[in-house]
Amino acid sequence: MHHIDVSSVLRQTLACDLYSNLVTRPTGAAVRGQIETMLGESPERAFAVIDFSQVSMIDFSCADEVIAKLLMRYAADDSPQEAYFLFRGVSEFHRDAIESVLERHGLALAIEEADGVSLLGVLSELERHVWAAAYRLGPATAAEIARTIDASDTETETTLDALDRRRLVMRVSGRYVAVGSPRG
Amino acid sequence: MTTVITVPPSLDDHSFEQVLEQVAPLPADAKILVDARHARWSSPYGLTALLTLAQTRTERPALAVPDHAETASYWARAAFFHHAESLFDLHGSYPKRRDLPDSNSLLDITPITKSEDVHNVVGRVQERAQAIIKNELKLESKAIMGFAMTLSEVCQNIIEHAGQGGWVAVQSYRWTKRLGRRVVVIAVTDAGLGFRKSLESSPGHLPSTRWDDAAALEEAVIRGVSRFRDRGRGQGLAGTRNYVGRWNGKLSVRSGTARIGIVPAWDDDVPLAEGLPHFPGAQVQVIIPEAVAGGADR
């Protein structure tokens, strides 16, 4: 597992200790480039905690470059590798920009907060429901998850596959595991 | 022959139009003297726009500095003369910035030419803005980060679209004349491409039957269209618009011959002004007012 402290990446990118603000597109593109390089050092499947704890603020342009483009790249059919992300340390000072870019691109991400992990962004009710069940259960089959939410196996499996493509659940030995699940 | 351009005593985004009405009919190489002797007050927009005006001239203009010592001192502390020295032939005496106490502005007039400038500006403003937005404007803490984001986005607009550098200034003051409350004002101006030309440079641009500066501003400011095809582009101004709406502020963007505004109930400006005197580039102003107890004007 990678722990990526975004403020450290930012300081390396700017070669300057003065700023902890993620602003401007060029900065965002450079930070994303660094994150991709770090992920590339992993074997095929990578799991990264993207930590915003030490980032003061992020603007829309930078959120688009760092977060939206990162998620889109690794959810694409031609993704360089299988990578999953858990976002940590996202405060009210980051949320507006992040939610705005997620909405713009129809994306979603898993966010770790004091009371557990939840999803932020654009998801259907069913996707949220299925993901929450997978999160509670830990590694489980589609049928096991379907039983806990009183849904059909087929519908649940289709939804889990869609969440897998969006890198919000991963498949491990035929079972589904929600990103950030404590039982994962 | 030198044409004298009279600066009104109170210089803001509206009265600056009087300056442009005098300059717009003149060729870019006409010799002009910008007469600011009778100026008594200027908003950040007025000062940055004067610098921008000089950048539109191919013949170096002259500027007669304000007669009033307090005004000249204020303009000096805001770094106006510091930058104006390289753009105008200055006539009259004015204090040197180094001889004056620091200005109380959030951000003195600062050039924006590259991304690092935006980092610098946001970093410098953040701490002071925090105190002013919370204690003087009495807004929630969420407004502080939104303010820094807005500042960042409007500055980036210069780098991404102007094709040349521009200016930014941020000031907090009591706006007695129009509002009777404290405000924080961001002014960002450039003499670059402007919105119409920027959007025209997009590979997919198809001009509509009505295509002019006003239409370009509507596309960019209201519909979030950018010259870049990337779907993620155009969010900066959209975010700025949302921020201004949320805190009952005002956004105005002028480019070419038009000005578009997100106008709150406390202001009587028109949402779209067309047929203005031509001024190259883009000039953006964001005003965030002090909250009213109970949100009476929201």
Give, in order, the helices and strands of chain B: EEHEEHEHHEEHHEEHHHEEEE
- Which chain pair has the greatest contact? A-B, 27 and 26 residues
Most strands sheet of chain B:
7 strands, antiparallel
Helicity range of chain A: 40-55%
Query: How many strands of chain A?
Result: 9
Order of strands across the main sheet of chain B: 7-8-9-13-10-11-12
Shape descriptor of chain A: globular
The CATH architecture of the largest domain in chain A can be given as 2-Layer Sandwich
Which value, in Å, is the CA radius of gyration of chain A?
16 Å
Quick summary:
With 184 residues, chain A is α/β, with parallel strands linked by helices. Chain A has seven helices and nine strands, in the order βαβαββαβαββαααββ. In chain A, the strands form three sheets. In chain A, strands 1-3-5-6-7 form a five-stranded mixed beta sheet, with helices on both faces.
